[in-house]
Amino acid sequence: GFFEAVEAQDTSRLFKRLAVFDVCCALTIQGIAYPDLTPEAFLHYSVSTRQGRFGVYTYGNYVGHLAWQVMYDTGHFPPSAPATLRACLRAPQLSADELVDQHGITNPAVRQLLVDYIERRSHDLDYGTTASLATLLVLNFWKGVEAINPDQQDLRLSQETYQAWRQAIRVRHDGKRRTDEDRILQAVRALYFDLQAWAAQEPERWAIWV
Protein backbone atom coordinates (compact mmCIF):
# COMPACT_ATOMS: atom_id res chain seq x y z
CA GLY A 1 0.00 0.00 0.00
CA PHE A 2 2.84 2.39 0.81
CA PHE A 3 4.62 1.59 -2.45
CA GLU A 4 1.41 2.21 -4.43
CA ALA A 5 0.79 5.51 -2.66
CA VAL A 6 4.34 6.63 -3.40
CA GLU A 7 3.97 5.66 -7.04
CA ALA A 8 0.82 7.80 -7.29
CA GLN A 9 2.65 10.97 -6.19
CA ASP A 10 3.17 13.73 -8.74
CA THR A 11 6.93 13.95 -8.47
CA SER A 12 10.07 12.61 -10.11
CA ARG A 13 11.08 8.96 -10.26
CA LEU A 14 14.16 9.78 -8.17
CA PHE A 15 12.16 11.20 -5.27
CA LYS A 16 9.73 8.28 -5.37
CA ARG A 17 12.63 5.84 -5.18
CA LEU A 18 14.21 7.76 -2.33
CA ALA A 19 10.93 7.83 -0.38
CA VAL A 20 10.89 4.03 -0.47
CA PHE A 21 14.60 4.01 0.37
CA ASP A 22 13.99 6.19 3.46
CA VAL A 23 11.31 3.92 4.86
CA CYS A 24 13.33 0.76 4.17
CA CYS A 25 16.36 2.30 5.91
CA ALA A 26 14.31 3.39 8.93
CA LEU A 27 12.84 -0.11 9.31
CA THR A 28 16.18 -1.85 8.84
CA ILE A 29 18.20 0.38 11.17
CA GLN A 30 15.60 0.20 13.96
CA GLY A 31 14.77 -3.45 13.42
CA ILE A 32 11.01 -2.93 13.20
CA ALA A 33 8.16 -3.75 10.83
CA TYR A 34 6.26 -1.12 8.86
CA PRO A 35 3.21 -1.09 11.19
CA ASP A 36 5.53 -0.08 14.06
CA LEU A 37 7.10 2.87 12.22
CA THR A 38 5.79 5.74 14.34
CA PRO A 39 6.22 9.46 13.65
CA GLU A 40 8.78 9.57 16.47
CA ALA A 41 10.79 6.70 14.99
CA PHE A 42 10.77 8.17 11.49
CA LEU A 43 11.64 11.63 12.82
CA HIS A 44 14.64 10.11 14.60
CA TYR A 45 15.79 8.50 11.35
CA SER A 46 15.34 11.73 9.37
CA VAL A 47 17.15 13.93 11.88
CA SER A 48 19.99 11.45 12.38
CA THR A 49 20.49 11.12 8.62
CA ARG A 50 20.73 14.89 8.26
CA GLN A 51 23.09 15.31 11.20
CA GLY A 52 25.35 12.52 9.97
CA ARG A 53 25.16 13.80 6.39
CA PHE A 54 24.22 10.33 5.20
CA GLY A 55 21.73 11.51 2.58
CA VAL A 56 22.49 10.26 -0.92
CA TYR A 57 23.24 12.59 -3.84
CA THR A 58 22.07 16.15 -3.10
CA TYR A 59 19.14 14.68 -1.18
CA GLY A 60 20.41 15.48 2.32
CA ASN A 61 18.07 18.40 2.97
CA TYR A 62 15.02 16.46 1.77
CA VAL A 63 15.45 13.20 3.65
CA GLY A 64 12.09 11.79 4.67
CA HIS A 65 9.81 14.56 3.35
CA LEU A 66 7.94 12.61 0.68
CA ALA A 67 7.80 9.43 2.77
CA TRP A 68 6.35 11.36 5.73
CA GLN A 69 3.72 13.01 3.53
CA VAL A 70 2.64 9.65 2.10
CA MET A 71 2.46 7.97 5.51
CA TYR A 72 0.39 10.86 6.87
CA ASP A 73 -1.94 11.03 3.86
CA THR A 74 -2.58 7.27 3.87
CA GLY A 75 -3.42 7.25 7.60
CA HIS A 76 -0.34 5.34 8.69
CA PHE A 77 0.53 8.25 10.99
CA PRO A 78 -2.17 9.37 13.46
CA PRO A 79 -4.09 12.63 12.83
CA SER A 80 -2.29 14.16 15.83
CA ALA A 81 1.04 14.03 13.97
CA PRO A 82 2.15 17.05 11.91
CA ALA A 83 0.99 16.75 8.30
CA THR A 84 4.50 17.29 6.95
CA LEU A 85 8.00 16.56 8.15
CA ARG A 86 8.84 20.23 7.66
CA ALA A 87 6.13 21.21 10.15
CA CYS A 88 7.41 18.59 12.55
CA LEU A 89 10.98 19.85 12.33
CA ARG A 90 9.81 23.41 12.94
CA ALA A 91 7.52 22.50 15.82
CA PRO A 92 8.71 23.61 19.27
CA GLN A 93 10.36 20.85 21.24
CA LEU A 94 8.48 19.67 24.29
CA SER A 95 10.08 19.78 27.72
CA ALA A 96 10.52 16.63 29.78
CA ASP A 97 7.41 17.63 31.78
CA GLU A 98 5.38 18.00 28.60
CA LEU A 99 6.65 14.74 27.12
CA VAL A 100 5.53 12.89 30.25
CA ASP A 101 2.27 14.77 30.83
CA GLN A 102 0.94 14.16 27.32
CA HIS A 103 0.32 10.56 28.41
CA GLY A 104 -1.51 11.44 31.66
CA ILE A 105 -0.13 9.04 34.25
CA THR A 106 -1.80 8.99 37.68
CA ASN A 107 0.93 8.53 40.28
CA PRO A 108 2.52 11.97 40.96
CA ALA A 109 5.72 10.53 42.46
CA VAL A 110 6.37 8.25 39.50
CA ARG A 111 5.47 11.11 37.16
CA GLN A 112 8.18 13.25 38.74
CA LEU A 113 10.66 10.39 38.60
CA LEU A 114 10.07 9.94 34.88
CA VAL A 115 10.33 13.70 34.28
CA ASP A 116 13.65 13.82 36.15
CA TYR A 117 14.95 10.70 34.40
CA ILE A 118 14.03 11.87 30.89
CA GLU A 119 15.41 15.33 31.59
CA ARG A 120 18.75 13.84 32.65
CA ARG A 121 18.92 11.41 29.73
CA SER A 122 18.04 14.20 27.27
CA HIS A 123 21.45 15.80 27.76
CA ASP A 124 23.03 12.86 25.91
CA LEU A 125 20.28 12.32 23.31
CA ASP A 126 18.82 14.22 20.37
CA TYR A 127 15.23 15.37 20.69
CA GLY A 128 13.72 12.63 18.54
CA THR A 129 15.34 9.92 20.65
CA THR A 130 14.28 11.69 23.86
CA ALA A 131 10.66 11.88 22.68
CA SER A 132 10.76 8.21 21.70
CA LEU A 133 12.19 7.30 25.10
CA ALA A 134 9.34 9.15 26.81
CA THR A 135 6.81 7.18 24.77
CA LEU A 136 8.46 3.87 25.65
CA LEU A 137 8.72 4.56 29.39
CA VAL A 138 5.54 6.53 30.03
CA LEU A 139 3.01 5.15 27.55
CA ASN A 140 4.27 1.63 26.92
CA PHE A 141 5.65 0.92 30.40
CA TRP A 142 4.11 2.89 33.25
CA LYS A 143 0.65 3.47 31.75
CA GLY A 144 0.52 -0.26 31.16
CA VAL A 145 1.49 -0.97 34.76
CA GLU A 146 -1.16 1.43 36.05
CA ALA A 147 -3.79 -0.27 33.90
CA ILE A 148 -2.89 -3.62 35.46
CA ASN A 149 -2.40 -2.40 39.04
CA PRO A 150 -3.79 1.10 39.69
CA ASP A 151 -2.40 0.98 43.26
CA GLN A 152 1.22 0.48 42.15
CA GLN A 153 3.26 3.11 44.00
CA ASP A 154 6.87 2.32 43.02
CA LEU A 155 9.03 0.38 40.59
CA ARG A 156 9.02 -2.80 42.67
CA LEU A 157 6.59 -4.77 40.53
CA SER A 158 5.24 -8.06 41.77
CA GLN A 159 5.86 -11.07 39.57
CA GLU A 160 2.14 -11.16 38.73
CA THR A 161 2.10 -7.50 37.64
CA TYR A 162 5.29 -7.90 35.65
CA GLN A 163 4.08 -10.97 33.78
CA ALA A 164 0.71 -9.34 33.06
CA TRP A 165 2.52 -6.29 31.67
CA ARG A 166 4.80 -8.45 29.52
CA GLN A 167 1.72 -10.12 28.11
CA ALA A 168 0.00 -6.79 27.48
CA ILE A 169 2.86 -5.19 25.50
CA ARG A 170 2.79 -7.99 22.98
CA VAL A 171 -0.24 -6.26 21.48
CA ARG A 172 -0.23 -2.66 20.27
CA HIS A 173 -2.89 -0.13 21.22
CA ASP A 174 -4.64 -0.68 17.88
CA GLY A 175 -4.95 -4.41 18.59
CA LYS A 176 -2.21 -5.55 16.22
CA ARG A 177 0.69 -7.77 17.19
CA ARG A 178 3.70 -5.75 18.37
CA THR A 179 7.03 -6.41 16.65
CA ASP A 180 9.18 -3.97 18.63
CA GLU A 181 8.73 -5.45 22.11
CA ASP A 182 12.50 -5.55 22.58
CA ARG A 183 12.74 -1.75 22.28
CA ILE A 184 10.38 -1.34 25.22
CA LEU A 185 12.19 -3.93 27.32
CA GLN A 186 15.57 -2.36 26.60
CA ALA A 187 14.32 1.09 27.63
CA VAL A 188 12.81 -0.24 30.87
CA ARG A 189 15.92 -2.26 31.74
CA ALA A 190 18.05 0.83 31.10
CA LEU A 191 15.81 2.82 33.44
CA TYR A 192 16.31 0.34 36.27
CA PHE A 193 20.04 0.05 35.58
CA ASP A 194 20.55 3.83 35.43
CA LEU A 195 18.68 4.41 38.67
CA GLN A 196 20.79 1.81 40.40
CA ALA A 197 23.99 3.41 39.12
CA TRP A 198 22.90 6.97 39.85
CA ALA A 199 21.77 6.05 43.36
CA ALA A 200 25.36 5.24 44.28
CA GLN A 201 26.35 8.81 43.39
CA GLU A 202 23.20 10.68 44.42
CA PRO A 203 21.40 8.47 46.95
CA GLU A 204 19.28 11.34 48.26
CA ARG A 205 17.68 11.72 44.84
CA TRP A 206 17.50 8.24 43.34
CA ALA A 207 17.96 5.57 46.06
CA ILE A 208 14.27 5.49 47.00
CA TRP A 209 13.49 4.03 43.56
CA VAL A 210 16.12 1.29 43.56
Task: Tell me the layout of helices and strands.
Blueprint: H1 2-7, H2 13-30, H3 39-52, H4 65-73, H5 85-90, H6 96-101, H7 108-122, H8 127-148, H9 159-168, H10 181-201, H11 203-206
Care to describe what's here?
The chain is mainly alpha-helical and 210 residues long. 62% of the residues lie in helices and 0% in strands. It has helices spanning 2-7, 13-30, 39-52, 65-73, 85-90, 96-101, 108-122, 127-148, 159-168, 181-201, 203-206.
User: Strand-and-helix sequence, N→C?
Assistant: HHHHHHHHHHH
Rg over alpha carbons: 19 Å
Oligomer status: single chain
Structural class: mainly alpha
How is the biggest beta sheet arranged?
Answer: none
Report strand %.
under 5%
Low-confidence stretches are: none
Mean pLDDT: 90
Question: What characteristic shape results from the CA principal axes?
Answer: elongated
In short:
With 210 residues, this protein is mainly alpha-helical. The chain is 62% helix and 0% strand.
Give the tags.
210 residues; mainly alpha; 0% strand
